[in-house]
C-alpha cells in the first residue's frame, strides 16, 4: 500500500511517500505508522486515547475522505493509496 505525507508531516516521517506494509483498516494503519514514525506523528493521527482519528488530520483513501467511508474503521486494500494531510488554516 502506498502512503503519502503532506506539509509538515513529512518532517515527522522524513519522506513524502512510502510503500508501507498492508494494514486492513485505517485504525491499524495509523497505529502502525505511529509505531514506525513515533509520537509526534501519533499525536496528529490519533486522539490521546488512540480510539479515533485526531482533529488536526485529513486522511484520504484513493482520493476519498475517510469521513465519508467509515472513519477510523475504513477498510483498506493492498493496492490503496492513503494520503495524509494536516488541517491547515489560513486566509
From TrEMBL:
Please give the Pfam families that the UniProt record associates with this protein. Answer: ThiS
Which InterPro entries did the record assign? Beta-grasp_dom_sf (IPR012675), MoaD_arc-typ (IPR010038), Mopterin_synth/thiamin_S_b (IPR016155), Sulfur_Carrier/Prot_Modifier (IPR052045), ThiS/MoaD-like (IPR003749)
Write down what this protein is called: MoaD family protein
Amino acid at each position: 500500500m502506498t502512503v503519502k505525507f503532506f506539509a509538515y508531516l513529512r518532517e515527522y516521517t522524513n519522506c513524502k511517500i512510502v510503500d508501507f506494509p498492508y494494514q486492513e483498516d485505517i485504525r491499524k494503519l495509523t497505529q502502525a505508522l505511529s509505531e514506525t514514525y513515533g509520537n509526534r506523528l501519533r499525536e496528529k493521527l490519533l486522539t490521546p486515547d488512540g480510539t479515533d482519528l485526531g482533529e488536526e488530520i485529513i486522511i484520504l483513501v484513493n482520493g476519498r475522505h475517510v469521513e465519508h467511508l467509515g472513519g477510523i474503521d475504513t477498510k483498506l486494500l493492498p493496492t490503496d493509496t492513503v494520503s495524509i494531510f494536516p488541517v491547515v488554516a489560513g486566509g
